[in-house]
Records
---
Amino acid sequence: MMAREAKTKKEEKVIETEEEKEQKEEKTSSSRKKIKPKLSKEIKELLEKRRERYEKQPDFKRGEWFRYKKLGTMWRRPRAVTNKQRKNLRYRPPKVRIGFGKPSAVRNYHPSGFVEVLIHNVKDLEKIDPKLHAARIGATVGTRKRRAIVEAADSRGIRVLNRGVL
């Protein structure tokens, strides 16, 4: 009899926590809308073209990535004189080349359409135009300062790209 009561109490706790999670999600989603950039028609078209080209682009892999596990797939330029990938042999993966480039007008744009600006403190937010720029908080910024930056950005209507769970 005690075991059944214990199970039901656990189930009640699980149900309560799920309800609490839903309430928290509702609060966060309703209080914060995703800010969108104001882009010209040309920039929108170029961003769409860039997205299409990314889909067609092959995965550039390091030479002989399949042979040695320690190498990994991350791209490294082949430099050796006898390297088959450098010689463009067909049975090797494609090399990174200038022809795979994207439109230069939208280079350094985030996929959302904003230009990224790296932020390390609240004072850096003054440089940002909320219509064109989005903030990316630096990796070395601690939690306390990160919270302050996010609050200041929300009050000014600036989008934070790596907001995280705060």
Note: Residues 110-166 form one domain.
---
Amino acid sequence: MLDLKSHIRTIPDYPKPGILFYDIGTLLAHGAAWRETVERMAETVKPLQPDLLIGVESRGFLVGASLAAHLGIGFVMVRKKGKLPGKTIARTYALEYGTDTVEMQEGIVASGSKAVLCDDLLATGGTAAAAIDLARQAGIAVIHAAFVIELDFLQGRARLDVPVTSLVRYAE
């Protein structure tokens, strides 16, 4: 079993001073480590028998689409406002300073579908909570959230009302 944490690079002061960025680029670049990441996530997600996975822009697309292909199920994108073609539904949520909006294409998934939210990182939980609310607005039952990395010290898990799984956790 590979130590996935050893394949995640940290970059200080990115994107701004005082922030420590957890970069999965080095995990993606290591074929065996990425394969193991997807396989470990599949062990958690497959028994839940979701109809589809939902991924949040942009690294959540890499996680969710890889996992969906591995499981042989569908994948739905949640993107920032104005990035998806056709009719969309939107969810605006609060940030530390201001708001942001995420969207999903309307009508591409049957109402009543069962889904798992996937992303690379759980930090404060704001974006994940907004994506779950957006999916529910579309009639999708979100039953779980799965992340590669979780920053425990930011307590994002507490903002989510679904069970949460993460492969690599940082205490501080």
Note: The chain has a mean pLDDT of 96.
---
Amino acid sequence: MARVVVFCGRALRRNLEKARGRGLRYAFLAPGAEGPPLRGFDAALVELGASSSARTVKTLRRALPGRPLGSLSRRPSVAALRRSRSLGFDFHQSSPAPGQPSAAEVLAHIRATRPRRAAPAALERGTVTKRLSILTDIVKTANSILEPRKLIELIMAKIQQLIPSEAWSILMVDEETQELTFELAIGEKAKDVSTFRVRMGEGIAGWVAETGRPTIVNDVAKDPRFAGKFDKNTRFSTRSVMCAPLISRGRTIGVVEIINRLGGNFTRSDLQMLLTLVEPCAISIENAILFQKTEQLTITDDLTKLFNSRYLNLYIGREIKRCKRHEIPLSVIFLDLDGFKGVNDQYGHLAGSRTLTEVGSILVQAVRESDILARYGGDEFVVVLPETPPEGALVIAERIRKAIDGHAFLESQGLTAHISASFGIASYPDHALTPEGLIQKADQAMYRVKERDKNGVALAV
């Protein structure tokens, strides 16, 4: 049954009530008045007179795109005719003169000519075609990308074309802690959430990860699952959320969260579209993460999780080429632990391994994010400092020396052990021009400290 919204005064309303056409339903509103959401109406009629306004017309055009709009007047005048034409309406009389169409005929015409079936069908066909095209692009590209971040960026960029939003994020399940971590987030406060961790069952994302069920929340203030602490910490305002699980090989490996849809509420159609796009990609995301982990194992030390000597030599080689092009320095710190053998002899090899792990943590805290840390072998470590001259390397080496010397090792095991370290520094281009040369020069400087009194820093000569 067609539904027509009519903006008119009382007199015209009485006239139209008498002329109701079969198969039509009316909603009467005064011009400019607030009324029900207009999306459900098939057509609109506006009484052109002193009380009607261009604001009403603009509202109708936005709310009823592609729907028939007509104008009515109880006493047609030149002004009414001009206003009707200026607003792009067809003009009709509600109390017609001989030969003029009646209001009932006007409404019947609107009912007969409304694009109710054709337009939505065409729109749906266009949406499906676009969705299939995007899905094809995602699947084709996903299988060729083995870097998780790039793959996720690709998938979400495509989804944004169909479901525009203020922000989105992908959270992955940490297998060790069974918490969700932000793998990637885009939006106004994306950087602020990068360090957050979400427990299973916490917030809407945690609930989806725990249950494996997608959900839509168009008013988070009314949903008890919503965790407001994230908004409080970031000063972001979450109004609506659509969240879907990433399921690969029968396991939930993460969730996709889209926040604050642009242009209205999230719909079941949006959710179905999201599931259609992410379900085939979940296994590609997991494969990319597994590949990254496997690759990481070949270049990292099992015990300390720092880089190994194989990667160290490759990295220094690349950095030297870059330094040569841009004429910038590079420094290498070589350090060897003092008294480590005593820890092994007194407490055993497990305690020794724990000590090496603690040294790795101290190094991570003492250097910059751009610096590279490696376990060279046994109780020897190397720190690579890009764009750092010898003077800067001396400062960093002394900082690390003090941190190791002042640390109480094995306290978490109920034991007490103290060790120190001897440091040697070599720089490009001052002391050597090759990766092997830099390591050798730094190692020689470190041995000078060992032979002297240990627990010190020396620069290559």
Note: The first helix runs from residue 10 to 18.
---
Amino acid sequence: MAIPDHEHHVRLTLFRSELNAAYGLRDGMAVALRLPYDVKDQRVRYTTLAGEPYTPPYGDIHHRSETLRGVSDGALLVRWQPAAGGASQWQLGIGTTLPLGETVADPVALGREGKTHEHLQFGSGVFAPELDVAWSRPVAGVVASGAIQATVPLTTNGRGFRAPKNFRWSIGPSFRAAGTGIALSAAGQYQTIGRWHGETDEGTGFSNGGLRLQLSFPPLGGVSIAPSVYRELYSHGLNDETFSQGTTLGLTLSRSF
């Protein structure tokens, strides 16, 4: 069957909740656990290259409108803050992801066979080293800070998937006004291309960046509340796909015991 060239327009709305817990081992050292739960709402439409609506003859074996829910890969890290030798503060974290999220069978191979397959996953299927470095320094009533986080899978899972490497960064000032903490930062991510038995995994491989504004209110009933908003300013795909991230809203609730 001759199938004309056409485009897949995929909108993915993500809802993520995370439980983050840290326990102090001694002065300047703690162990941290991250457990996420995701809801992935996908909506798909097809068009010809001229932009006209199109219904592909292969149906929804490739992409489909659906909502998936599940636990995603967590992480376990040891964080260390060296004794301050000056105005600057450093924090180092090293550990591993926890392969708790569900994985799928090779969608590239199944697609070639004309079989229904799934591209959305909740995990990588492997333990992947994770590293983060954070720095801060007070300057004239403002705290300048920056952070780099890296997740670097080194192995392929049992289904033939090699997860992409992820590098996240942020830098910017923070200060207090009328008892409220205000942090404005430039932030972004660089992700390499994932592979299925050596072949490109769609939906991976991009770089982006934008601005994040976060407010930190005084504790209420012992609970600190910090809402945030992130707006993407640029995005670039590393293969023949294009990516665009909409506005991201966040809310952090924390309490110390």
Note: The chain has one domain: 6-254.
